[in-house]
Specification:
Layout (H helix, E strand, L loop, with lengths): L4 E6 L5 H10 L6 E5 L11 E2 L3 E8 L7 H8 L2 E2 L2 E8 L8 H11 L2 E8 L17 H20 L28 E2 L8 H5 L23 H5 L5 E2 L2 H15 L6 E4 L2
Parallel strand pairs: 1-2, 1-4, 3-5, 4-6, 6-7
Antiparallel strand pairs: 7-10, 8-9
Helix pairs in contact: 1-4, 2-3
Bound molecules: flavin mononucleotide (FMN).
Flavin mononucleotide binds next to helix 1.
């Protein structure tokens, strides 16, 4: 196949998924168009892709799934037997059903997800887990994977010759857990609205950015990451305590996993 265009459709609350996707994409021989579907304001975007394009879908793993908002925004894209690479980026615990879920969404939207990976990135909620990842070794593995992806495409006469690989995961998918950490604004909040504009779920009212709608918040930590005044955060003591227990259980280095259909 002669691939003429490369696009990356990504959801990345705190930039770690983006970093892993970048390490993969920069090893491909085409310039990429980056389509960011993270903020709620970008949710309606819908693009159509042809059979000679390659689309990379990248999302973080939350509770062993991908965020529902990412799944919905990926489902709006339209493939025409378009080859796709799926990246489910996880924080060194597990990716459980996330890749399987991404495969289902991509296939229903007209894509052929012949290559799938679960890269590891620093945990965006639990402090001190997988710090600095993806690191050099991860980037090298992602680059090698990109080489194999490109060779597979070059060897296939058309997308019909590409196979979707078996990945780990179970149906029905894991129930999405309720996460007790909902960031709040402190007195340092100047109500600039940067968090409200960036929030993936519209949980922060644009006219009252010092508030949080806990029923909408998915604990993605994006508001904490984008606040220029360090004015948003979760209960530090609780998070540190939870982080210590988590790091004991899931601190040992895990390696990324890669799958290409045969
Ligand atoms: C609410 C929440 C749930 C998470 N659940 C998991 C999980 O189930 N397994 C895991 O290994 N990492 C989990 N993580 C870590 C993220 O998957 C990981 O840090 C990811 O790279 C974050 O990407 P982002 O910066 O693009 O949002 C979770 C992070 C958050 C904020």
């Amino acid at each position: 196949m002669n691939i003429t265009k490369l696009s990356v459709v990504f959801f990345s609350a705190t930039g770690r998924t983006h970093k892993a996707a970048e390490a993969f994409v920069k090893a491909l021989p085409l310039p990429a168009r980056w389509i960011d579907v993270t903020a709620a304001s970008t949710a309606e975007q819908a693009h159509t892709f042809g059979p000679e394009e390659l689309v990379v879908f990248a999302a973080p793993v939350y509770g062993g799934r991908i965020p529902a908002q990412a799944a919905q925004r990926f489902a709006r894209q339209k493939g025409t037997q378009t080859p796709a690479v799926l990246l489910a980026v996880f924080g060194n615990r597990d990716y459980d059903d996330a890749l399987l879920e991404m495969q289902e969404v991509a296939q229903a939207a007209g894509f052929v997800p012949f290559a799938c990976a679960a890269p590891v990135a620093e945990h965006s909620l639990m402090p001190g887990v997988a710090v600095g990842r993806p690191d050099e070794a991860d980037a090298q593995k992602l680059a090698e994977f990109a080489g194999r992806v490109w060779q597979t495409l070059a060897a296939a006469p058309s997308a019909h010759a590409l196979a979707v690989p078996a990945v780990k995961g179970n149906r029905p998918y894991k129930a999405y857990p309720s996460i007790p950490f909902k960031p709040m604004a402190s007195k340092a909040c100047v109500q600039c609205g940067a968090c409200a504009r960036a929030c993936p779920t519209g949980a922060i009212p644009l006219d009252h950015p010092n508030q949080t709608d806990k029923t909408r918040c998915i604990s993605c930590m994006r508001c904490v990451a984008v606040c220029p005044h360090g004015a948003r955060g979760v209960n530090k003591l609780l998070l540190e305590a939870a982080g210590k227990v988590f790091a004991l259980k899931f601190g040992a280095r895990k390696e990324p996993e890669f799958f290409i259909g045969k």
